[in-house]
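Hi X.,

You mentioned you wanted examples for the new student's onboarding notes, showing what a folding record looks like when two proteins sit in one file. Here is a clean example. The first protein comes first, with its sequence line followed by its structure tokens.
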Amino acid sequence: MDTSNWTSIQGDWNKFKGQVKEKWGKLTDDDLMRIGGNRDQLIGTLQQRYGMAKDRVEEQVEEFASHASGWVQQAKNKVADMAEPVMSYWQDHNAGEMVNDLKRLINRYPVQSTLVGIGVGYLVGRIMTPSRS
């Protein structure tokens, strides 16, 4: 067993719950919350839900974990690939050029720009407004 793969999943359990449920559809939301990223708990719950032998469940979980580490690495690579041109843009352009680029984008995509503006405004409003608990 490669514990580094499972350590990534356990550390980001909330991000992986959807993929776990997609692979093993008999798991309920309560199951996923109870499992909480614990590999042994997942194996035990899968044995109960699917009636499979422990070694077969362990194989499936290990296969899932090895794929999951690939997903994590792909995401890291995409972020790194996108970060480089963004950093380069920020370094190569002054504020006036960035404002002009933004104006061109808004003129080119007015509907999308309006929707983004509404979404950002909504999020800022939610963040800035105290909760009424």
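Then the second protein repeats the pattern, sequence line and then tokens:
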Amino acid sequence: MSIMIIMRGPSGSGKTTRARELQKEYNALINSADKYFMVKGEYCFNADQLPAAHNWCQDRTRCACEDGQNVIVDNTNMSLWEMKPYVEMAEEFGYEVKFQWGKNPMFTEALRAVLEMGDKCFAMFNTNKHGTPPEVIFAQLAKLGPCPVFSPDLRDILVSKSPMELAAEKEQV
């Protein structure tokens, strides 16, 4: 059975480092929205292109699943609904799904524990290699779905809804 590994964690938590280790272990293809922003070896992030980057990552993941390749989805995946397209693909193609945190799984828990400290801990987060500002990391942590350390239940992911879906439902009522 092929395997899909879904990485979880905020920017700078070591997801890509861990994904590269797992790539060797599982002979897997790594897909990430970040790769969409790579231009001639340089990371050129553009927030306006984020939806296109995630669609691109999903398309690449679907192609890998069609070929039966082991695949690693290396995005933040902080909310259950963000993982939903990948879990749906995994089910469609008969993949086993595993969840992994960054190189240091305690990073996310430590970040979550200090959220209440605000400005006092901003300096601690200014060292990630992506240059992601602390306030963005805090916003990612605020979206963290249930069971931050343990693997979420696939059924919870499959019934999860994005903020846009929830807003549309609210308008219909």
